[in-house]
Amino acid sequence: MNTKTSLQHVLDFHGSTTPGIVIGRYMMEKAKTGFSSDRLFHVIVETSKGLPDAVQILTGCTIGNGGLKLVNLGRYALSLYGRSDGKGIRAYLDPKKLDQYKQIKGWLYKTTPEAAYNMQALIVEIHSAGTGIYSTKPVKMLPRFLKTRPQGKILTCSVCGEAYPQSDGGICRGCTNETPYAETDTILSGDFLQPKLKTIAVEDAVGKRALHDMTKIEPGVFKGPEIEYGQEISAGDICRLQKMGKNSIFIVGEMEDNQDWVHENDAVLSFAENMAGFGVTYDEKPEEGKITFTAEKKGLFVLNRPKLERFNLHKDVMCASRHGYTVVGKDKPIAGSRAIPLFISSQRFERAVESLAGGFPLLQVLPMRQAKVGILVTGTEIFKGLIKDRFIPIVKSKVEKLSCTVLGQIIAPDDKRLITESVNDLIAGGADLVITTAGMSVDPDDVTRPGLMDAGLTDMVYGTPVLPGTMTLVGRIGTAQVIGVPACALYFNITSFDLLLPRLLAGLEITTKDMAQMGEGGLCQNCRLCTFPKCPFGK
Q1: DSSP letters of 19-55?
Q2: What are the start-end ranges of the H helices in 118-263?
Q3: From edge to edge, which strands make up the β-sheet containing 77-82?
Q4: 292-333 pLDDT, tens digit each
Q5: Topology of domain 201-255, per CATH?
Q6: 539 close to 522: Cβ distance less than 8 angstroms
Q7: What's the CA gap between 311 and 363, in Å, rounded?
């Protein structure tokens, strides 16, 4: 295909003659110089103006087939590169070569007002310049541009019912208000959908049954249902309702709408059945349309955060919880849920329930085992008695509060071999949780971590985005869990140790991702009066 023919194809595709289109034709020609014709290549374009269309027609590399990638840096440049090795040639419009091309320079730098453009003269000048206004240089692509990104798992959005990539989140992006449309589908819109309910004056309601709980509030004294769902209204209730500001009420059996609707009580009971996992209980009689979940026994509250977000993205429903990984006592509240309106459409209800299916339950309270603990204090200065140990009483107090037993305790010098032997001795003595202290930083005398590794430490995760306690370590030696506590635990009442210990006791695997997620809320405020765990730290 000659230059004239190829350019015409590009113009036909784009729909009009623009400087960017013509520049793209010559820039491609320049980039191909020195690029072997038999090499399979992809293209990166650095502007969205004109060049992408020229590349797609001239090369067959398109955004759709993955051969063309748009990295919009606002520069008139493109790169041809090998699909396998990433080596290529970058061609760019070189300002240093534009001094004799006043039309092109005025267009590029916008020094010529748009209304004053002589478009025909500009295009002629671009043709006359040919490939002479472009420069090239060798480039090598970053590895991520060589990878073909698989679409990944496809899910059905529980809100709209359409297929979408799992990587987009709990529901599709269109249902998180990223859609470009003025939404007309009432199921997806924010319209407050409700059935047509007939109202009745309270004085005419005697003998009728209430359609919902009616709340009475006395500030600082009482808040709760004065009239319960299904309760028959008596003559004595009339005055009470009027004092509550109720002059009209909804009653059972007076719906004007025959569509499928789910009452708030029925909806929240279904939600509860699908939310409550191990160690979680709830009262099967909703109060004021909501249900509160409580812990059956003392344990670690574990929250499925993605599932909570997915559920709360649905219209007309909600669930609020305590922070995950909180130690909770028996019968303590951990979460609450309800349908927001009195009635929820059956379609919205069903999709909300579907969002709770699969994977780990939304709410769990896991028991924490009563570990047999071995404590290893490292530090030559402590071993020699130069300073008094304060680690053992601190660690002992913390583990005993969680019903664990200390089987043994050893003080070892900063000697890798002796640290290894001490750890093995504690495990041989029956310890299934070894807590080591100090020697976790970057000083040359800090050999606790190498000593643990010589003892057979595996599954090690070292370093957490928590202050204080960044240089904390978790791992395993055989079946025994190991946690290394940095020296900051001597000074600070609460550190990352206090956040990680309950998770270990609950049998949770702690991964690098888990550690990374601890960054939010991981900055202790060092309050003068510490109220942990009733504070934001670690949440």
Answers
A1: HHHHHHHHHHHHHHTTS-TTS-EEEEES-SSSHHHHH
A2: 119-129, 235-243
A3: 68-70, 41-45, 77-82, 87-93, 134-140
A4: 999 999 999 999 999 999 899 888 999 999 999 999 999 999
A5: Molybdopterin biosynthesis moea protein, domain 2 (3.90.105)
A6: no
A7: 13
Q: What angle do CA 419, 457, 429 make, to 5 degrees?
A: 60
Q: Is 383 exposed, middle or buried (0-12, 13-18, 19+ CB in 10 A)?
A: middle
Q: What is the pLDDT of residues 219-258, one digit of tens each?
A: 887 888 887 888 888 888 888 888 888 888 887 766 655 5
Q: Note whether 292 and 286 are within 8 A (CB).
A: no
* Structure-block tokens of residue 310: 């997915």
CATH (one of 2.30.30, 2.40.50, 3.30.1360, 3.90.1170) for 261-366 = 3.90.1170
Residue whose entry in the numeric block shows the structure tokens 């909600």: 318
* Preceding peptide of 113 cis, ω within 30°: no
**Is residue 497 within a helix (H) or strand (E), and if so which, with residue range?**
helix 496-505
Question: In what helix (H) or strand (E) does residue 475 lie, and over which residues does it extend?
Answer: strand 473-477
CB atoms within 10 A of CB 220: 6
How many Å apart are CA 187 and CA 185, to the nearest integer? 5
Which DSSP state fits 251?
E
| Alpha-carbon span 342 to 199, nearest angstrom | 14
- Tokens describing residue 502: 């309950």
Please list, in sequence order, all residues whose beta carbon lies within 8 angstroms of the beta carbon of residue 179, skipping any fewer than 6 positions away: 173
CATH 3.40.910.10 is the classification of domain 372-517: no
Domain segments of the chain as ranges: 3-145, 201-255, 261-366, 372-517
3-state secondary structure of 126: helix
Total count of residues recorded for the chain: 539
Q: What angle do CA 431, 435, 441 make, to 5 degrees?
A: 150
CA-to-CA separations, 450 to 38, 101, 415, 432, 439, in angstroms, rounded = 53, 67, 10, 20, 10
Both structure tokens of 71 = 């990295």
Instruction: At 457, list the tokens.
Output: 């430490």
CATH topology of domain 3-145: 60s Ribosomal Protein L30; Chain: A; (3.30.1330)
Cα separation of 332 and 17, whole Å?
71
Question: pTM value?
Answer: 0.71
Q: Please say if the pLDDT value at position 11 is more than 60.
A: no
What is the rounded CA–CA span in Å between residue 188 and residue 120?
50
Give all strands (DSSP E) within 231-371, no chain letters.
248-255, 261-263, 280-282, 290-295, 299-303, 317-321, 326-328, 333-339, 343-345, 363-366
DSSP state of 335: E
- Which residue type does 334 have? I
Closest to 197 in 3D by CA, of 265, 140, 141, 253: 253
Question: Which tokens sit at 244?
Answer: 């509550």
Instruction: Please state, rounded to an integer, the average pLDDT across all residues of the chain.
Output: 86
What would the pLDDT profile of 68-122 be if each residue is shown by its tens digit?
Answer: 999 999 999 999 998 888 899 999 999 999 999 999 998 888 887 777 778 888 8
Residue pointed to by tokens 């051969």 = 67
